[in-house]
Design goal:
Layout lengths: L2 E10 L2 E11 L4 E5 L6 H9 L6 E6 L2 E2 L5 H7 L1 E4 L11 H7 L13 H7 L1 H5 L10 H13 L5 E5 L7 H16 L3 E5 L3 H7 L2 E6 L2 E7 H6 L1 H8 L2
Parallel strand pairs: 3-8, 3-9, 6-7, 7-8
Antiparallel strand pairs: 1-2, 1-4, 4-5, 9-10
Helix pairs in contact: 3-6
């Protein structure tokens, strides 16, 4: 495994959100965090990224304890974060958004370049000179993922990537994430869209009130309608 959370508890001030969350992600797989709104999915991602450090427990990256590292150190270690609110640079062009995030791949690994992310997201090539603030929601989401890839992460944290997007755009985005997975990218996906997640994920964790309620394969959860209804109110 390359990422592991051990008995993680996280709070915002006096408000506790995560209660003993333990999970792991193996290299090359896509793992999904599922659950209703407000159960702790985003907090789990933020805890890994160092944006909301845990009050107890450990975050391990390649068996190295990175608990409480500031976000820039987590990013330098090889973890890329695609936030729910996208946070593109509205006053920069698409090309400039990508260029400012460029970071060489470590070792002999083939790195992401602007040309390579344009190959993954052809729409962005057509919009290279347009300012970020003039992009649609789907285009901004593509740009956010592409910009994160320019940092050459080994693990991609995706927080609610389908949120607020039209169904056709969600289907297109799912295909591009599936391509990343086929090319060997390791992905941890926090998502409320169950069908979107189960199409992509190898394994699933379901959160409820800040605790892991279920862990298993996406195939098992997809096949058990009663369990999906119990855990996810489907």
């Amino acid at each position: 495994m390359i990422l592991e959370l051990r008995d993680v508890h996280t709070a915002y001030g006096l408000s506790r959100v995560l209660f003993g969350v333990s999970l792991h992600v193996d290299a090359g797989e896509c793992v999904s965090l599922l659950g209703r709104n407000g159960v702790g999915k985003t907090t789990t991602i933020r805890t890994i990224m160092g944006l909301t450090p845990p009050s107890s427990g450990q975050v391990l990256w390649k068996a190295r304890d990175i608990t409480g590292f500031p976000p820039y150190r987590v990013a330098r270690a090889g973890i890329g974060f695609v936030p729910e609110d996208r946070r593109i640079f509205a006053d920069l062009t698409v090309w400039e958004n990508l260029d400012v995030a460029a970071r060489a791949a470590p070792g002999a690994r083939t790195g992401w370049t602007i040309e390579r992310v344009f190959d993954l997201f052809p729409t962005l090539r057509e919009l290279a000179g347009r300012h970020g603030g003039y992009l649609s929601g789907g285009e901004q989401q593509m740009l956010t993922i592409a910009r994160t890839l320019m940092g050459n992460p080994e693990l991609l944290l995706l927080d609610e990537p389908s949120e607020g997007l039209a169904p056709l755009v969600v289907d297109h985005l799912g295909g591009q994430i599936a391509r990343l997975k086929r090319e060997g990218m390791t992905i941890l996906l926090a998502e409320q869209n169950v069908n979107f997640s189960l199409e992509l994920a190898d394994r699933v964790y379901v959160l409820e009130k800040g605790r892991i309620r279920y862990r298993g394969t996406a195939t098992e959860l997809r096949a058990d309608e009663a369990l999906r209804r119990e855990l996810l109110a489907l």
